[in-house]
Amino acid sequence: MVVLAKGELEQIALPAAEPPPADVRSVDLSAPAGPAREAAARALVAACEEHGFFRVTGHGVPARLVRAAEAAAAGFFARPQGEKEEEGPTLGYGSKRIGGNGDLGWVEYLLLGGTPAAAPSSALLPCAAAPSPSAPAGPLRDLLDEYTVAVRRMACAVLELMAEGLGIAGGAGDAVLARLVARADSDCMLRVNHYPPRPALNPSLTGFGEHTDPQIISVLRANGTSGLEIALRDGAWASVPPDGDAFFVNVGDTLQVLTNGRFRSVRHRVVVNSEKSRVSMVFFGGPPPGERLGPLPQLLGDGGRSRYRDFTWSEFKTSGCRTRLAEDRLSRFEKK
Length: 336
Ligand SMILES: O=C(O)CCC(=O)C(=O)O
Ligand SMILES: [Fe+2]
Hints:
alpha+beta; 14 strands; binds 2-oxoglutaric acid; binds fe (ii) ion; Jelly Rolls; 8-stranded mixed β-sheet
């Protein structure tokens, strides 16, 4: 349940128009080495340049794990509000408030550290409540941890294919992008969002307001329910048709910086206009806190100018924490 105070419903009410469907490219992660993999890597790079968003097939995450995690999460959200709030500190439960700066949505969520049983250091950013690290693991937590391990592995495989497509893969063991998400101290997390059906009389509500994700990549899936929309280059919104089996990947702010603006951190939002509830599970792949980030020298070319000044991931998060959801967090790191 999302309990809104007087006046809050009006803040998140939207007109009912659904935008046209986005032309989302598919990338087959299981393409065999050789021309098929090269084509997949090219498709991935093109999608990151065009939309900053693509669909992943051949991902290797077992369907039974996805279904079990999703069902367990839905079971949690169906429990009485008091019980959810009681368990809140152990699972990072929150409702309607996104971040600490007044953004509201028709959503309740769980927020877990991406390294199983570790406390996350950020929500969308680090300002939101973090679960207690000493929390005992329950069956839901165990399933979500197992899911996170599998999706994190996939995120690294996506980043390896991406490096190949960019021509910066280097030699074996030189995982220039994947290493940022694969390290034990990488700042990864899982967010499970539940968007209850829209209330009667309201054609459409903001579930999760427009924003870009701050990390390197986000790997997302939902229970075959529509609602996710992405902004195209011309600013128009396009809806993402639900997909029961594939995962979707967002380019995050940090990947836009690493590629010196070649890849686009995709603006996206969730609109609730359905009578069915939506459960989405989003893995955020972020770098270690002290990692220095800036455009990769391999992508600058000879005499190329860096569009961003270097920063650490901690610095970026601290600065982003002070912003509203929809704000452009990268502008303050752009070189004039
Ligand atoms: O729930 C979704 O489908 C997307 C949510 C989202 O964008 C986020 O949690 O950052
Ligand atoms: Fe997001």
